[in-house]
Amino acid sequence: MKTKALLKLMVLVTFVISTTSCKTKNVEERNELTKSKEVVSKPNIIFILADDLGYGDLGFNGQNKIKTPNIDKLAANGMVFTNHYTGSSVCGPSRAVLMTGKHTGHSTVRGNPRWTASGTPVDINAEDVTVAEELKRAGYTTGIVGKWGLAENLTDGIPNKQGFDYFYGFNQHSPAHHYYPESIFENEERLALKGNDPKTKKGQHIHYLITEKATEFIDKNHKEPFFLYLSYTIPHFELTILEKEKEQYKNLGWPKRKMTPGHYRHDEDGHITYAAMVSTMDRDIGNLVKQLENLGVADNTLIVFTSDNGHEYDDLKNEFFNSNGHFKGHKRDLYEGGIHTPFLAYWPNKIKAGTKTDHISAFWDFLPTACELAGVKPTDNIDGISYAPTLLGNDNKQQKHNYLYWEFNERQGPIQAVRQDNWKAVKFDKKPVELYDLSNDIREQNNIAEQYPEKANELLHFIKYSRTEHPEFPLMKKKQK
């Protein structure tokens, strides 16, 4: 009897062990499958770039005249970066930095087209690795709609040779200055826009076509991971928009700022037109979010919104919109007003709603961020650091920059700047370095280089040794050719 009982007990124990082992194995397999799904489930990425929009032009940054309810809603339900910087204080180099992850001391394009040593435009080239090329490796369908501005020569710099599956917009700068262009590129084909006349502003306003093509791209590609670079030309000069868009700003008693047409075929009343342009962009961004929700992909889509550099429209001597907020300077400055940009990130159920971060970041951080979210590593040597940990609430894992660097060589240049923690240094050619403590002097009013000579010299060292030489962009006084 004891022998039979012992045999039964052994069988029971064996069964329990076997069952437990099987359950453990199944749990482990399920966990591995879950991890695999998390890796495979790559987010769609939409990067929306406004053109010459100031830090203070948006409601969430204090704007009280221009209505931006949809962008403000994204900010309220996402994360606002209070210390984010552009790649440059003008659009060409800023966009090159965004695409390649290299700051202006290392990037191929360091100035706008006619500000080269030879007078010949410089584009990004075949050796440059763009964020679109990186995301292609990760299985993304990639598209850019709007202003590219990195293919003046229409050769290796064109989007379709830089990792983009689809392109609709402007390869070059000058055509993008007008909202009624005679032609536009779709992929590598130049399409005539029949009836358009940039001088008389007749035909189709390009903003609406850009929005339409962005909508089509999402409709076509939303079932698989996609990257859309939506590069609006609003509110860059010239100032013009349909009359119906201006109605909400008429009869408000605003003073009239009369605009004089020249190269830019401005509408007559600058204030009303500028506000209406920004609000039109805001409305269309709201419609894009609704489209994502209707398609059922909003929860798996990261939306980033920012501007390529500081504002140009608002008159610093007679400010109306306070477009640079509490910053000094505007477009073409390396003071905060020229490079400190509005920045928000929205990703439902991934980014905690209503959060702000003071993490110091810049355009060259987007490429490694996109790579991390897509599950690939950057293939080139870059200056950027991924801010994905900050987006996802893992602040303890967020790496930080030792410093940020910029250079700019148009008009009053060459100018260089460095930010390290709360210290900011600005260096004009053949002038002593300026030093500011942004924690106490965000307006950069008090140059304290003499009070803190060691810190001034430390940042001056970064200014001197943070760049590689470029034959077309030497740091020396030059005139536009």
Word description of this protein:
With 481 residues, this protein is an alpha/beta fold. The protein has 2 domains: 41-402, Alkaline Phosphatase, subunit A; 406-465, Arylsulfatase, C-terminal domain (2-Layer Sandwich). It is 29% helix and 16% strand. The strands form 3 sheets. Strands 7-6-5-4-8-1-9-10-2-11 form a 10-stranded mixed beta sheet, with helices on both faces. A hairpin with a 2-residue loop joins strand 6 (183-186) and strand 7 (189-192). Helix 5 (206-221) runs parallel beside helix 7. The longest helix is centred in the N-terminal third of the chain and has 39 residues, at 2-40. The radius of gyration is 26 Å and the shape is globular. The N and C termini lie far apart (106 Å).
Write the layout of secondary structure elements.
Blueprint: H1 2-40, E1 44-50, H2 69-76, E2 79-81, E3 84-85, H3 91-100, H4 131-137, E4 141-147, E5 166-170, E6 183-186, E7 189-192, H5 206-221, E8 226-231, H6 243-246, H7 270-295, E9 301-307, H8 336-339, E10 343-346, E11 355-357, E12 361-362, H9 366-374, H10 388-391, E13 404-408, E14 415-420, E15 423-428, E16 434-437, H11 453-465
Parallel strand pairs: 1-8, 1-9, 2-11, 3-12, 4-5, 4-8
Antiparallel strand pairs: 2-10, 5-6, 6-7, 9-10, 13-14, 14-15, 15-16
Helix pairs in contact: 5-7
